[in-house]
Amino acid sequence: MHPHEAFIGLAALLHAATTTELRLLTLDHRTSARHAVRFPGRSVDLALDEATWNALMNCVGHRASLGTDNPHVLVTRLTRTTRAPTGAAHIRDSLAPVGLLPRVLRSTRLLTLAAELDIKQLTAALGMSYAGAAHYI
Fold this sequence. Notes:
The protein is mainly α. Helices cover 51% and strands 4% of the residues. The protein has a single domain (3-134), classed as Intergrase catalytic core (hpI Integrase, Chain A). It has helices spanning 3-15, 19-24, 50-65, 88-94, 102-116, 119-126, 130-134; strands at 30-31, 36-37, 46-47. A hairpin with a 4-residue loop joins strand 1 (30-31) and strand 2 (36-37). The termini are far apart.
């Protein structure tokens, strides 16, 4: 299994990460001491569970093996010689072998969070607009 597959799946399912957040995530967004990340566009650091943190560290190890200066966590053969983020298609296609889409996993998490949280908490925690979160309620 490619290291990106586990991280993308866990981040989308457990932490409602968007394709854009995953694409734009850089090494600077990590806080190793707390096992946390701040997804781009969100206002708070998010403490990751052990499985997601380990998957993230596997992605960091993979990018190190590519010998790249690209600052992003998810680096492919195409982006290793640039500073550009990986394409949205890479994020989407990474879970295709198991028949899943990251947006479906994210939606599943958003439905769960909408049932458990106040909409103001949901929008603040995920950096969403009220309109974006309202249809999950």
